[in-house]
Write a structure and sequence with these properties.
The protein is mainly beta and 109 residues long. The chain is built from one helix and seven strands; from the N terminus they run ββαβββββ. Strands 1-2-3-4 form a four-stranded antiparallel β-sheet. It has a three-stranded antiparallel β-sheet with strand order 5-6-7, with no helix packed on it. The radius of gyration is 15 Å and the shape is globular. It starts with a strand and ends in a 6-residue tail after the last strand.
Length: 109
């Protein structure tokens, strides 16, 4: 994973982790500290953990999938830092921009 993920949201009903990420950290730094007109992209990932490996040693959840739920180049939303999902609705928070509300109409279980 090359993205820099920020805060995690744990969905208690599904066990999924949701996170807001910075696709290119250098763009976020440029936007925050040097030039507010520089675009800082946004990315939301859902991490689905497989069964826990309780017998062996090593990785606690050896099977997982990562789904890209939302992505943009910073025109719609700058610097996503958190995502919360509930019953087909998603809120995406940022470091410096507005809050984004999305209806998630196609999400594989």
């Amino acid at each position: 994973m090359v993205d820099s993920c920020d805060n995690l949201f744990f969905h208690v009903d599904t066990g999924d982790l949701w996170t807001g990420c910075h696709p290119r950290v250098i763009d976020t730094i440029q936007h925050l500290y040097h030039n507010v007109s520089h675009r800082s992209g946004s990315l939301v990932l859902r991490i689905r953990l497989g069964p826990e490996n309780v017998v062996g040693h090593g990785v606690p959840f050896p099977d997982y999938t990562i789904d890209q739920i939302y992505s943009n180049d910073g025109r719609q939303l700058k610097g996503s830092s958190v995502a919360v999902y509930y019953e087909g609705n998603m809120l995406v928070g940022t470091v410096v921009d507005n809050l984004l509300y999305c209806e998630v109409k196609s999400l594989q279980p």
